[in-house]
Amino acid sequence: MRPPHIELRHLYAFLVVAEELHFGRAAVRLGIAQPPLSQQIKRIEEAIGHRLLDRDTRNVSLTPAGEAFAETARAILQQLSAGVERARDVASGAAGRLGVGFTPTTALRLLPRTIPVFRAEHPRIEIDLIELMPAPLVEALRMGQIDVAIMRDPTPAPGVVATVLHNESYVAVLPTGHAHASGPFTLADLAGDPFILFPSSSESQTVGRVFGLCAEAGFVPRGVQQVPGWQTAISMVGSGMGVTILPESVENLQLPGIVYRRLESPIRSTIAAVVREGEARPMVTGFIARSTAIMSA
């Protein structure tokens, strides 16, 4: 069904007349003369096919059709106003839906600190959190399924750019019964221990940095056992099957049978926000800027 042709300015003019029930006062509010106002009302009535106003030399009143149309007109203008406001909010980054993908290891410290603050400051932005491993995360970003990917030690990749949010040092993860679970400690003390590590990937440099730490300490990890991820590695350490090295945010996992020992080294693990090249939406850039500020505080 084709809608009748009614201009928004005519719709507003009708509502003003419906409120004032006086053409002279309505014309003053609208800043126009009475004859053009009467013509606008006439056009609406012609489009609808029914009188909306009863008027004589003294009185103006709404017909039943006019009362019904006034409700509809008011709702239309209110929806239009809300739509304009929302469009402005989205354009300015004050509202919208933000898809944030993250790898499991970034959920230990960064996300718990940044997401609640950002949500509280931007209640009209809906944040969708999606946990993925590095390779699927980058692909989801490229496909537009998420707006920003929070990753650890990302490697350069075509079509995406990274902004560093936080740098953190590493810790050695030892079983509580280990000879170096307490007392003086350096990484070189673990040269004879079997290491539990997770597989390296083209999207992350984490394992490479662990080997860099060991090389800095003068040894190459021996008896390396590869596992799927951090939690498995920590579980195996707790079982006495070896040791591992992880970024310091793993200390948030206070697990029985585990001891964390800080390592002194300039080598750091980097957590970055990765976005598509050319990303300039205020909602995305604002999220990255706020996350950086929170983590540096």
Characterization of this structure:
41% of the residues lie in helices and 22% in strands. The strands form 4 sheets. The chain has a 5-stranded mixed β-sheet, with helices on both faces. Strands 10-7-11 form a 3-stranded antiparallel β-sheet, covered by helices on one side. A two-stranded antiparallel ribbon has the order 1-2. The mean pLDDT is 89. Helix 1 (8-20) crosses helix 2 (23-30), helix 1 (8-20) crosses helix 4 (64-92) and helix 5 packs across helix 9 (282-296). The chain has helices at 8-20, 23-30, 34-48, 64-92, 110-121, 134-142, 206-216, 230-238, 282-296, and strands at residues 53-55, 60-62, 96-102, 125-131, 148-152, 160-168, 170-175, 194-197, 222-226, 244-247, 258-262, 269-276. With 297 residues, it is of the alpha/beta class. It is built from 9 helices and 12 strands.
